[in-house]
Write a structure and sequence with these properties.
heterodimer, A: mainly alpha, globular, B: alpha/beta, six-stranded mixed β-sheet, 18 helices
């Protein structure tokens, strides 16, 4: 118990928490400058997110994809790779699930796993392209992931248009009901919100994330490579193949996330004019969560609550929804500038004479 | 005399979380003397000098420069006070010329233009006065390490320094370059400059310093004139106990040939041929030392031997089996242990804990790993054993390697490599940057391995180390072995001559 308390107040936990608080406070200052009432604004934001069962369910729905993409980014980070491409891997996973969902006929106990497996494979392979290019050609992953995001966006649209299109609509046909992740029972419980089993998959993958990273040989290797590729190479670890493997697993997380949106929320895949944005937000989630499993889940909760609650802020206090992006940006800024927050915490502790 | 002391530091204390780096330190440096600051790594000498150079602020104490009490808030203030620091790792811009580096940040201007003419005249003046000859128009990349150091010295002089702090200046130099540096330091002192020399090498202090202050665990142990002391006394004061300089070892009992290298060639990173048909044998029960000026292919040789670099031709045989161009893991599994030159870059994953680092070579094999899962109880049990056996000073096996001192980090590496029971142990610069106590320990371990019938290949830039430890010395020059010597029948001069290609007249150019 004391260990837990100590951990709660350790700097690595305090920094994100303090950063979040500073972000919210500065957001309030901006609201004040715009003659809005920040208390009312934040009040209505949280009322929207947690106010009733329906909205609570929808908040969870909003949180779910952030967990997936957050895990994807965090996992790659552990090997020292900056995966900006969770967006593309997410889309590839979604379209793979849509293909299996629309084109295949199977009983649910086969159809659901097959669709998920297809999305995992699609996202994973999309990620491994990045790992391969880095390992074989030395191309920096930031460049390739950004480019592959665009390729994924348009390739997915092409697939939907040619193979899955619902006539007269800018989306695919509905996937077979046997491939749905939606749960009438769960939905009922949350007053018909679009909450689905995907959230359980996300939590299960968070556990897997922790387990792979800290308990397996593979995790040891990829953390070693992340910390020190030179020492890893010398220790006989195949650094290049580790890049590929890591990016596969990273892409897998994002890909399954994409599948859950299709199979749980919409039941079809739209033709996207722009990026859905889950992958990019995954970077923020990983950053806030400091690349740990628990941190990612909590980071996803934060971002999910803020984005979903933003519309409430608009209705309740007249604050433009966009302002929440400013708050999120501030939070990310302070988490990224951890040194600054650290200094603040130290100052505060010193003043209060807390023994380190 | 009011201004007898150039530098006076009184009652300096500096605490970092968890450690007291400096505790009530008094230091008095006379004008025009060479004052050595002696202490083991982590004793606090670098902290003290960083305070003097304005990089840290002391928690307590007073600093006087030429009798004036001063507050040195940052390096700029220190430079204004005439203090210059020659860092161990040079702070030079490689693609720039010597001239550009010297004036960087203090360029003489004519309008908005830099007046190189004025700068050149001033640099010429300084070089002549102190015997610091450099070609101002060569780029840093083109000149030797010894030359680069001269550029660093000129940089501080150009900025008007009259108190020069040298931080471990000889660590990167060849024996001849060390001689030259000593002459330069003497000249500087004779011309009235005050020199503070941070070092843990007793030989240098005995050779050049006027006075020495010994620091141990953040406190001053003693301060005395060098002529009144001996190296043995200084070592004992530094470490806090008696230290043996002579390495006790029995006659070598060389057995069968473990490593055979045949006509090996390889290229360096820039694509130049670094190894030009190198042949060598190492037998069990002997320590073979490789001597050579840095950059003559030693690094490439070690990298090829450990599988980190490809050989372009030739053969490497371990107990008769060809292993050239196999992966680092295959070579390690062929019973080759390797203590790398750069322990923080190659030897350890600093953010891993001690326990994890101790299995870096065999984490994937039982008992540490079964069916893809790591068994941390086994890993930490193994670590606890080695920590005891090698006297690794760490709070526990779960402490990150980063938190350990250099000597203890090196012990982690040695423990790991020796625990794998290699037939061939390759040690590259195994004691670089370590203090006397740790050096003694590492040397004993290497000899112990030899006596157990292992083959030991030692590469070091410290000639003393090569001479003291080796049973045979192979001198390397331009990618070849140019001579095998018996350490009992040779001396530094002979080795030095071979190291520089044997042509004494060309030494200036090749060094």
């Amino acid at each position: 118990m004391t260990g837990f308390v100590k951990r709660l107040f350790s700097e690595s936990t305090l920094i994100p928490v303090v950063s979040i608080l500073i972000g919210l406070i500065l957001g309030a200052v901006i609201m004040l400058a715009g003659h809005y009432n920040p208390f009312l604004a934040y009040g209505s934001l949280f009322a929207k997110a947690f106010g009733d069962m329906y909205n609570f369910g929808e908040t969870i729905r909003q949180i779910t994809p952030y967990i997936f993409t957050g895990l994807a980014v965090a996992f790659a980070f552990r090997t020292g790779l900056f995966n900006i491409g969770a967006e593309g891997q997410f889309i590839m996973g979604a379209v793979a699930a849509a293909c299996v969902g629309v084109l295949l006929d199977a009983p649910w106990f086969l159809h659901v796993p097959l669709a998920l497996a297809a999305s995992a494979l699609a996202g994973g392979l999309w990620g491994s392209i990045v790992g391969y290019l880095k390992a074989a050609r030395g191309v920096h992953e930031v460049i390739t992931t950004i480019m592959l995001n665009w390729i994924a966006l348009h390739a997915a649209n092409y697939i939907v248009r040619t193979a899955l299109l619902e006539k007269g609509m800018a989306r695919s046909k509905y996937i077979q009901e046997s491939a749905w992740l939606s749960s009438p029972g769960l939905s009922e419980l949350f007053d018909h919100a679009r909450i689905h089993y995907g959230v359980l998959i996300a939590l299960a993958l968070s556990v897997l994330f922790y387990y792979v990273l800290w308990k397996t040989r593979q995790g040891y290797e990829l953390r070693a490579v992340g910390f020190n590729p030179d020492a890893s190479e010398y220790a006989g670890i195949n650094v290049k193949s580790t890049f590929v493997k890591t990016m596969f697993i990273s892409g897998l997380f994002a890909g399954v996330g994409g599948a859950c949106e299709v199979m749980g929320v919409f039941h079809y895949q739209t033709i996207n004019a722009a990026f859905p944005g889950y992958g990019l937000m995954g970077i923020a989630v990983a950053l806030i969560g400091r690349n740990t499993a628990v941190g990612v889940v909590l980071g996803a909760v934060l971002i999910g609550v803020l984005t979903y609650g933003a519309s409430g802020m608009k209705f309740g206090a007249g604050v433009p929804e966009e302002l929440i992006h400013v708050v999120i940006a501030l939070v990310i800024f302070f988490v990224a500038a951890g040194g600054m927050v650290e200094l603040l915490i130290r100052r505060f502790r010193k003043k209060n004479g807390t023994v380190h | 005399m009011p201004n007898e002391f150039a530098v006076e530091m009184k009652g300096i204390a500096k605490r970092f979380p968890g450690i007291v780096a400096n505790d009530d330190i008094h230091l008095q440096v006379r004008k025009g003397e060479i004052h050595a600051l002696l202490g083991e790594n982590g004793a606090g000498k670098t902290t003290l000098m960083n305070i003097l150079f304005g990089l840290y602020q002391p928690d307590e104490g007073e600093i006087r420069i030429h009798g004036q009490t001063v507050k040195i808030t940052d390096p700029k203030k220190a430079i204004d006070l005439g203090i210059g620091m020659i860092h161990q790792h040079f702070m030079l811009v490689e693609p720039y010329t010597v001239l550009q580096n010297i004036i960087l940040g203090a360029e003489p201007r004519r309008g908005v233009m830099i007046s190189y003419k004025k700068a050149l005249a001033r640099i010429g003046e300084l070089s002549d006065k102190y015997g610091l000859h450099v070609d101002p128009h060569r780029t840093i990349r083109e000149i030797s390490v010894g030359m680069q150091q001269r550029v660093e010295i000129l940089k501080t002089l150009y900025r008007g320094a009259d108190i020069l702090i040298f931080d471990e200046p000889t660590a990167v130099l060849t024996p001849q370059e060390i001689q030259e540096l000593m002459a330069i330091m003497r000249k500087l002192a004779d011309e009235g400059k005050t020199i503070i020399l941070i070092t843990h090498k007793l030989k240098e202090i005995m050779a050049i310093a006027d006075r020495v202050t010994i620091i141990r665990r953040g406190r001053v142990v003693d301060s005395l004139p060098v002529r009144d002391t001996t190296a043995e006394e200084l070592a004992a004061k530094m470490v806090g106990r008696n230290v043996s300089f002579v390495i006790e070892k029995k006659e070598a009992q060389p057995g069968e040939t473990i490593l055979e290298i045949d006509n090996l060639t390889a290229f360096d990173d820039r694509g130049c041929q670094a190894l030009r048909g190198l042949s060598l044998e190492v037998r069990s029960g002997e320590i073979l030392g490789i001597a050579g000026v840095e950059g003559n292919g030693q690094r490439e040789l070690i990298e090829v031997l450990t599988g980190l670099r490809k050989a372009s031709s030739g053969e490497i045989r371990l107990r008769g089996r060809a292993v050239q161009n196999e992966s680092p893991r295959r070579i390690a599994e062929a019973k080759v242990g390797y203590i790398p030159e750069d322990r923080q870059k190659r030897g350890l994953v600093l953010d891993f804990c001690v326990g994890e680092n101790l299995v870096l070579k065999n984490y994937y094999a039982p008992p540490f790993c079964k069916r893809g899962l790591l068994r941390y109880d086994e890993i930490f049990g193994h670590a606890a054993g080695l920590i005891g056996e090698y006297d690794i000073r760490t709070p526990d096996e779960k402490t990150p390697a980063r938190a350990l001192s250099g000597g203890n980090q090196q012990k982690v590496i040695v423990a790991r490599e020796v625990a794998c029971e290699p037939d061939l142990l390759i040690a590259t610069q195994p004691t670089r940057g370590l203090d006397v106590g740790a050096i003694e320990f590492i040397h004993r371990k290497l000899i112990e391995q030899r006596d157990k019938g292992k083959a030991v290949l030692l590469y070091s830039l410290e000639l003393d180390e090569i001479l003291n430890l080796s049973d045979r010395i192979a001198v390397m020059y331009e990618g070849r072995i140019v001579g095998i010597l018996d350490p009992r029948k040779t001396n530094e001069q002979e080795i030095g001559l071979l190291m520089s290609g044997g042509h004494k007249g060309e030494r200036e150019e090749t060094a």
